[in-house]
Specification:
heterodimer; A: 630 residues; mainly alpha; 5 domains; two-stranded antiparallel sheet; 1% strand; B: 311 residues; Fumarate Reductase Cytochrome B subunit; three-stranded antiparallel beta sheet; 13 helices
């Protein structure tokens, strides 16, 4: 039995067997072909279209509202009806692998229209291309088609079966704000996997502010290792390539794509950073209300920043507070390993100096004790190593202060807080830290309520000198003397101290005997000054030193009668001798003076008299000289 | 002081033994023409003039190099130390000057021995004679007389060849050299000395060395300068220690007892010499003035360091 339809011969044969195996086998023909109900054969042709909605009312309604349904309503001949996807008399349960809408078949069902070369793809406004090919290569397509994983997402998993709507429709399962929901139907705990990239709570609260899944994982091309551009940058560049484009406040709004292309964000689309765009608008960017928030991707760094002084000030709305772009720049963000990057080690001091140089905004509001930090850093061993020797491993600002969680030293969490300084310096100077932690200055060795010194107490924070320079060597005594006041004073009373004070370094200084970072209690056998080690310590300079020689009091003072009675009494004995001698001879001299003047006068008078007498050559000594005063 | 001292002191008329330092003069050019310009009394021989010059050079050198360390806390000390070529060089210079001073002592002692031999005298005669350097009872009387004279209670005593203050200066130098020299050697060779002395003795030696040096410099550059150079009647300078010569009138005035003794023994003529040439006197004055100037500067420095900058 056949019929002619649109000039073609169409078979009207219905395979009883296949119908019997379909989901509708229990139904009467008239259950669907309702217009045949009660009619005699041969019935009228053609029959009215079967209305599946009489039973499947929900699906029918969804379909009616969908893209497809509305196209049918418009009379679009290409629009699919139930039968186009599901078939007619041989409809099998979805669970049946032979069903036309079984997961494995769905791509082919949809692909009937949505593949390259079909009238739909050619004549209708479909945003995507090569859908079927891309899908089949995507992780979903591969799972489904190659690995036979029926749970892998097929077309309907994302687009739904019947409520297919364009992504611009807010009710669409693939609308920007719904994508997360759609994807998380399968990727239920995706926010945990993406914790590093996207703050968890934002998934629920501010999905629109986030990059949508598809921004990174392109629809149809989804690969977990393959992130291509999402929303077309070309759309943005339609306006932003224009050199004349200005913002309302006059800022030039031209974007140089080559900047982005050379940057770390070469694979990041405009809309991933400039989120909140709405592609359905003529100006998709008109919905943007916030400045670029890098923390959407750089979540961990964002959290650090928020706790930093910079972040806290920024949160208060302080205009001085630097934000990401102030240090990193905007479109031309380069990695810290790129020598052209602002955050490349040699450039870091300049970046920080923009605010922290004396007279600049950060320096002006700073109330602590560190001043001229940039100039002093540049002259320090770190600064010279970095800037003059070009050693990129040298400590720069961020090495100690960190890049994103810089906090004042008073904050216990700060890397430059007293308690954390050894760790901070030790991250490079590890060996020194090990020594230091065993030393008497380490809080692990000495329990005291007095402040213990840490690295910067001796080396300073920013003007760190080379320790083999005279300036450092000579300064160390007053440095140690800040705490060990008495002992430093008495050091300066000894030969070593006096030579140091004259400005010469070739003599024993604190660390020559006590060690520098490994200062230990003298009672500690490992101390350089312990009974067993002291002689060899002296021998560093006094090659033939002996045990008794080491008995020399290197911190002796003659002002302490209890501790050093010998020195005390020697000193006062000598002082007594001096005072006695000078008092006696001084008095003697003072008493003598008037007589001496008198003698001088008389002598002069005698000479004058002699001259007046017109010289008698016989007596060379003249008239009787004065024989003393009366 | 014993009775013999007084006897010796009174024995001015006896032929003078003239064997005390500076007196071992050969009867040189006694037959000089009478017309010659006033001949002068020779108080110091060339040896003692040379030794005194050596003392000046070594003493000032020791003082400058030593003080630069002692007063290291003054800015001047650092400058001086740099000027001297650094603390190490200053140390070498200090020790070298010490060797000169030790040499001076040795030369002086050998000079004494030689003098004794040539003069055919005995130690007793030298040490107990009227011109002895040792303190005598007469010195005590001279001292008491001097104080009385100072206070207007008596005439100026008739001093002999060596006044009591000259003897004091002389022994002060001996004492100083022994004390400073011995402690200095301890500091020079600490390892050797701590083989039989306890280590803290080095500290004690430092104090003694440094304070005794302070005493020495302070004394020499003030009291000694005054006594022998700057006394108003000598002002501006008594050059006898440099030229060795003094006018006879001055001898008569300052050392009346010696003068009387020489006149009595008729030996005065033996001790007269032509004055030093003008150029020599000029050179001597320049040298002496330089030494004086350095000495005074050191005194100013010490006062500044001790009074204004003491730490």
């Amino acid at each position: 039995m056949t019929t002619k339809r649109a000039g073609r011969t169409v078979s009207l044969y219905i395979d009883q067997k296949r119908f019997g195996g379909s989901v509708h086998s229990s139904l009467q023909c008239t259950s669907c072909h309702a217009d045949l109900d009660g009619k005699d054969l041969p019935h009228e042709v053609p029959l009215a279209k079967v209305n599946c909605g009489s039973c499947h009312s929900d699906e029918a309604q969804q379909h009616a509202k969908s893209l497809h349904g509305r196209a049918i309503a418009r009379g679009d001949a290409l629009a699919p009806r139930c039968v186009n996807c599901h078939g007619n008399h041989d409809i099998l349960p979805v669970k049946d692998p032979r069903s036309t809408v079984a997961p494995l078949k769905v791509p082919f069902v949809c692909g009937q229209c949505h593949r390259e070369g079909t009238p739909v793809q050619a004549n209708r406004d479909i945003g995507q291309h090569n859908i079927l090919e891309n899908y089949s290569e995507s992780i979903h397509g591969e799972g489904l088609l190659k690995k036979g994983l029926v749970v892998a997402a097929n077309c309907a998993s994302c687009h739904t079966a019947h409520s297919i709507l364009p992504h611009t429709d807010s009710k669409s399962s693939i609308a920007r704000q719904n994508i997360a929901t759609t994807c998380t139907k399968c990727h239920a705990n995706i926010e945990q996997v993406h914790r590093k990239t996207i703050r968890g709570e934002l998934w629920e609260k501010q999905a629109h502010a986030l990059p949508a899944c598809v921004d990174c994982h392109q629809p149809h091309k989804v690969r977990n290792v393959f992130y291509a551009q999402g929303m077309a940058d070309a759309d943005c560049m339609r306006c932003h390539a224009n050199g004349q484009l200005k913002a309302a406040d006059g800022r030039p709004m031209q974007v140089n794509l080559t900047e982005v292309a050379g940057s770390r964000h070469v694979k990041v689309a405009c809309s991933q950073c400039h989120s909140e765009v709405n592609a359905s608008r003529v100006r998709p960017c008109e919905t943007i209300t916030k400045k670029v928030d890098c923390t959407a991707c750089h979540e961990e760094i964002g959290q650090q920043y928020q706790r930093s002084t910079h972040g806290l000030l920024h949160a208060k709305g302080d205009s001085n507070a630097p934000f990401c772009k102030d240090c990193h720049g905007t479109h031309h963000v380069l990695g810290k390993h790129d020598p052209d990057s602002r955050t490349f080690p040699t450039n870091v001091p300049d970046v920080c100096a923009r605010c922290h140089r004396e007279g600049q905004k950060a320096a002006l509001r700073y109330t602590g004790s560190e001043h001229e930090i940039i100039g002093r850093y540049n002259e320090s061993i770190h600064g010279k190593g970095l800037l003059k020797s070009g050693l990129t491993v040298t400590a720069t600002c961020t090495s100690c202060h960190t890049a994103h969680r810089e906090q004042p030293a008073s904050n216990p969490e700060s890397t430059v807080n007293k308690t954390n300084v050894p760790d901070t310096c030790g991250s490079c100077h590890h060996g020194i830290q090990e020594q230091f932690m065993q030393s008497v200055h380490s809080p692990t060795q000495t329990r005291t309520d007095k402040p213990l010194p840490t690295c910067n107490d001796c080396h300073t924070a920013h003007s760190i000198n080379r320790t083999d320079r005279d300036q450092f060597k000579l300064g160390i005594m007053s440095t140690c003397g800040r705490c060990h006041e008495k002992i430093a004073e008495s050091y300066f009373e000894t030969y070593h101290g006096k030579v140091s004070r004259l400005g010469y370094t070739k003599t024993a200084k604190c660390y020559d005997c006590h060690g520098a970072h490994d200062v230990r209690r003298i009672s500690d056998p490992q101390s350089r000054l312990s009974r067993t080690n002291v002689v060899s310590t002296c021998r560093k300079c006094h090659a033939d030193a002996t045990r008794r020689f080491a008995g020399y009091l290197t911190h002796a003072t003659h002002h302490d009668p209890q501790k050093y009675p010998w020195l005390y009494w020697t000193f006062w004995g000598m002082t007594g001798l001096l005072v006695g001698t000078f008092t006696f001879s001084g008095l003697h001299t003072l008493l003598w003076l008037p007589r001496a003047f008198q003698m001088r006068r008389e002598l002069r008078e005698a000479e004058a008299k002699e001259a007046a007498e017109d010289e008698g050559p016989a007596s060379p000594s003249g008239a009787s000289p004065p024989e003393g005063g009366r | 002081m014993s009775a013999t001292d007084t006897e010796l002191l009174q024995a001015v008329d006896s032929p003078a033994q003239t064997l005390a330092p500076g007196r071992a003069i050969a009867p040189a050019r006694t037959d000089v023409r009478v017309a010659a310009p006033a001949r002068e009394f020779v108080r110091f021989t060339r040896l003692y003039r040379t030794l005194h010059a050596c003392m000046i050079i070594s003493f000032i050198t020791l003082a400058l190099t030593g003080m630069s360390l002692k007063f290291s806390y003054t800015g001047w000390a650092a400058k001086l130390s740099h000027l001297l070529g650094g603390f190490e060089t200053a140390g070498y210079v200090h020790r070298f000057a010490a060797l000169i001073m030790f040499g001076t002592v040795v030369a002086h002692i050998t000079g004494l021995i030689k003098q004794k031999r040539h003069g055919g005298s005995t130690w007793k005669a030298i040490l107990l004679g009227p011109n002895t350097m040792l303190p005598t009872k007469r010195d005590w009387h001279d001292f008491v007389g001097t104080v009385k004279w100072f206070l207007g209670r008596g005439p100026r005593p008739e001093y002999g060849r060596w006044t009591y203050w000259e003897k004091f200066d002389y022994f002060a130098v001996f004492w100083g050299i022994i004390v400073i020299g011995s402690t200095g050697l301890t500091l020079w060779f600490p390892v050797f000395f701590t083989r039989f002395l306890p280590g803290p003795f080095i500290n004690v030696a430092t104090i003694i060395h440094s304070d005794e040096a302070l005493l020495a410099t302070g004394f020499i550059f003030t009291v000694h300068f005054f006594n022998t150079h700057l006394r108003p009647e000598k002002f501006p300078m008594d050059t006898v220690i440099f030229t060795g010569h003094m006018p006879v009138a001055e001898l008569k005035r300052d050392k009346p007892r010696e003068y009387a003794s020489l006149v009595a023994s008729g030996e005065l003529e033996q001790h007269l010499e032509e004055p030093q040439p003008e150029i020599v006197v000029k050179a001597i004055r320049m040298f002496a003035w330089t030494a004086l100037a350095i000495g005074f500067s050191v005194v100013v420095w010490i006062v500044y360091a001790m009074v204004f900058a003491y730490r």
